[in-house]
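Slide 14.
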Amino acid sequence: MFGNHRDFFERVYELVRQIPAGKVTTYGHIAEALGVRSAARLVGWALHAARFDASIPCHRVVNRRGELTGKHHFATPTLMQELLESEGVHVEDDRVDLARYLWVPPRAEP
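Slide 15: predicted structure.
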């Protein structure tokens, strides 16, 4: 399906680094772009493993409803929102308006 987890994680990181500042994408969109639509939860695990790597903008990934479900993996519960707002993304009630801020990643080459 996607080789080993380490390879998959690296592909996730490469894609997350492409999310433009001021935009967000979802775990599911990343999984779909990588050709493994059912792997949204594994995308979350990859981002959890990278939470201390500042080169990977994990704060730009939200759930399918735009909710900041990853916020508990940051140094403080408000840091994810603070980072998004510093990039111009409006967050209200721990949610981002996907109609306004969604970036859909290009599908990766097989």
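Speaker note: Strands lie at 25-26, 61-62, 91-92, 95-96.
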